[in-house]
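Sat 14:20. Reprocessing the chain from the morning session after the first attempt stalled halfway. Input below, unchanged.
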Amino acid sequence: MAKKTKKDIIAQIAKDADISKKAAEAAYSSLVAQVYKGAKAKVGITLPGLGKFIKVRRKARAGRNPATGEKIKIPAKTVVKFKVSKAAQDAVV
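Finished this time. Tokens:
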């Protein structure tokens, strides 16, 4: 199966929900905005049947440059983690 683009996903949403592509794009954009906003929250955001987005802080750590083998210091940073729900895991596997 070929990689799906945003345009492909919006077209499929429009077809499945029997709505216009413009309405499907608005719904998709709203969902993405809600996920971004929810992921910033302390408890994250759960999309039932899909998974949970949560913001976590990674500590600074020592690493190694794979090209030269030189030791480097990797600074602390904030990242978004996604944990797949059991329902999504079971549907895919």
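The chain has two domains: 1-39, 41-93.
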